[in-house]
Amino acid sequence: MRLSTQNHLTHRERLTRGLAHTAGGPVDVARGAVGLSGAAVQRGAVELRRRYRESRLADHVADAADAAARELVAAGEVVAGLPEVLAYGEPRRHRIRRSWVIAGVAGAALLAGGVVVLIRRSDRPEESSPRPPSVDTQHKI
User: Signal peptide location in the record (predicted)?
Assistant: First the structure.
Protein backbone atom coordinates (compact mmCIF):
# COMPACT_ATOMS: atom_id res chain seq x y z
CA MET A 1 0.00 0.00 0.00
CA ARG A 2 1.34 3.44 -1.00
CA LEU A 3 1.21 6.47 1.21
CA SER A 4 -0.60 9.43 -0.28
CA THR A 5 2.19 11.76 0.86
CA GLN A 6 4.82 9.88 -1.12
CA ASN A 7 6.19 11.92 -4.01
CA HIS A 8 5.92 10.47 -7.49
CA LEU A 9 9.14 10.14 -9.42
CA THR A 10 9.65 11.88 -12.72
CA HIS A 11 10.71 9.79 -15.68
CA ARG A 12 14.29 11.02 -15.45
CA GLU A 13 14.50 10.25 -11.70
CA ARG A 14 13.03 6.80 -12.25
CA LEU A 15 15.59 6.04 -15.00
CA THR A 16 18.45 7.27 -12.79
CA ARG A 17 17.25 5.22 -9.83
CA GLY A 18 16.80 2.15 -12.02
CA LEU A 19 20.32 2.40 -13.35
CA ALA A 20 21.65 2.86 -9.80
CA HIS A 21 19.82 -0.13 -8.28
CA THR A 22 20.40 -3.69 -9.34
CA ALA A 23 17.35 -5.63 -8.11
CA GLY A 24 14.53 -3.42 -9.40
CA GLY A 25 16.74 -1.81 -11.97
CA PRO A 26 15.46 -3.41 -15.17
CA VAL A 27 11.85 -2.52 -14.39
CA ASP A 28 12.69 1.06 -13.51
CA VAL A 29 14.96 1.37 -16.55
CA ALA A 30 12.17 0.17 -18.82
CA ARG A 31 9.56 2.43 -17.22
CA GLY A 32 11.89 5.42 -17.32
CA ALA A 33 12.81 4.86 -20.97
CA VAL A 34 9.16 4.45 -21.98
CA GLY A 35 8.20 7.55 -20.00
CA LEU A 36 10.95 9.65 -21.53
CA SER A 37 10.14 8.52 -25.04
CA GLY A 38 6.42 9.13 -24.45
CA ALA A 39 7.14 12.61 -23.17
CA ALA A 40 9.33 13.29 -26.21
CA VAL A 41 6.57 12.10 -28.54
CA GLN A 42 4.07 14.33 -26.76
CA ARG A 43 6.37 17.38 -27.03
CA GLY A 44 6.85 16.64 -30.72
CA ALA A 45 3.10 16.43 -31.27
CA VAL A 46 2.56 19.73 -29.47
CA GLU A 47 5.25 21.37 -31.59
CA LEU A 48 3.71 20.00 -34.80
CA ARG A 49 0.30 21.26 -33.78
CA ARG A 50 1.76 24.72 -33.00
CA ARG A 51 3.51 24.87 -36.37
CA TYR A 52 0.30 23.82 -38.13
CA ARG A 53 -1.65 26.58 -36.37
CA GLU A 54 1.01 29.14 -37.25
CA SER A 55 0.94 28.08 -40.91
CA ARG A 56 -2.85 28.39 -40.96
CA LEU A 57 -2.53 31.81 -39.33
CA ALA A 58 -0.01 32.83 -41.97
CA ASP A 59 -2.46 31.67 -44.66
CA HIS A 60 -5.22 33.75 -43.08
CA VAL A 61 -2.96 36.80 -42.90
CA ALA A 62 -1.99 36.33 -46.56
CA ASP A 63 -5.66 36.03 -47.54
CA ALA A 64 -6.49 39.19 -45.59
CA ALA A 65 -3.61 41.04 -47.27
CA ASP A 66 -4.88 39.95 -50.71
CA ALA A 67 -8.41 41.10 -49.84
CA ALA A 68 -7.08 44.44 -48.62
CA ALA A 69 -5.10 44.87 -51.85
CA ARG A 70 -8.23 44.13 -53.90
CA GLU A 71 -10.19 46.68 -51.85
CA LEU A 72 -7.49 49.31 -52.41
CA VAL A 73 -7.55 48.67 -56.16
CA ALA A 74 -11.34 48.98 -56.19
CA ALA A 75 -11.17 52.21 -54.16
CA GLY A 76 -8.56 53.56 -56.59
CA GLU A 77 -10.86 52.83 -59.52
CA VAL A 78 -13.74 54.62 -57.78
CA VAL A 79 -11.56 57.65 -57.03
CA ALA A 80 -10.28 57.67 -60.62
CA GLY A 81 -13.87 57.71 -61.91
CA LEU A 82 -14.96 60.45 -59.50
CA PRO A 83 -14.35 63.42 -61.86
CA GLU A 84 -16.63 61.83 -64.46
CA VAL A 85 -19.35 61.31 -61.89
CA LEU A 86 -19.01 64.90 -60.70
CA ALA A 87 -19.16 66.21 -64.27
CA TYR A 88 -22.40 64.35 -64.93
CA GLY A 89 -23.78 65.12 -61.48
CA GLU A 90 -25.04 68.65 -62.27
CA PRO A 91 -28.72 67.66 -62.78
CA ARG A 92 -28.76 66.26 -59.25
CA ARG A 93 -28.66 69.78 -57.83
CA HIS A 94 -32.38 70.07 -58.46
CA ARG A 95 -32.92 67.02 -56.30
CA ILE A 96 -30.82 68.51 -53.54
CA ARG A 97 -32.67 71.83 -53.71
CA ARG A 98 -35.99 70.01 -53.83
CA SER A 99 -35.09 68.00 -50.74
CA TRP A 100 -34.14 71.22 -48.88
CA VAL A 101 -37.45 72.79 -49.86
CA ILE A 102 -39.37 69.71 -48.68
CA ALA A 103 -37.42 69.71 -45.40
CA GLY A 104 -38.12 73.42 -44.93
CA VAL A 105 -41.86 73.00 -45.51
CA ALA A 106 -41.96 70.06 -43.09
CA GLY A 107 -40.08 72.11 -40.47
CA ALA A 108 -42.45 75.04 -40.90
CA ALA A 109 -45.45 72.72 -40.50
CA LEU A 110 -43.99 71.28 -37.29
CA LEU A 111 -43.28 74.77 -35.97
CA ALA A 112 -46.83 75.92 -36.79
CA GLY A 113 -48.27 72.84 -35.10
CA GLY A 114 -46.21 73.55 -31.98
CA VAL A 115 -47.39 77.14 -31.88
CA VAL A 116 -51.04 76.02 -32.15
CA VAL A 117 -50.58 73.56 -29.27
CA LEU A 118 -48.98 76.25 -27.10
CA ILE A 119 -51.79 78.72 -27.85
CA ARG A 120 -54.44 76.15 -26.96
CA ARG A 121 -52.72 75.31 -23.68
CA SER A 122 -52.39 78.94 -22.72
CA ASP A 123 -56.13 79.49 -23.28
CA ARG A 124 -57.06 76.91 -20.64
CA PRO A 125 -57.09 78.05 -17.04
CA GLU A 126 -54.84 76.04 -14.77
CA GLU A 127 -56.71 73.66 -12.56
CA SER A 128 -55.60 73.54 -8.99
CA SER A 129 -55.34 70.20 -7.28
CA PRO A 130 -58.10 69.29 -4.82
CA ARG A 131 -55.46 67.88 -2.46
CA PRO A 132 -53.48 70.10 -0.11
CA PRO A 133 -49.80 70.66 -0.95
CA SER A 134 -47.45 68.04 0.45
CA VAL A 135 -44.67 70.56 1.09
CA ASP A 136 -44.77 73.65 3.25
CA THR A 137 -45.18 76.72 1.05
CA GLN A 138 -44.04 79.08 3.82
CA HIS A 139 -40.27 79.63 3.98
CA LYS A 140 -38.77 79.16 7.40
CA ILE A 141 -35.96 81.51 8.26
Answer: none
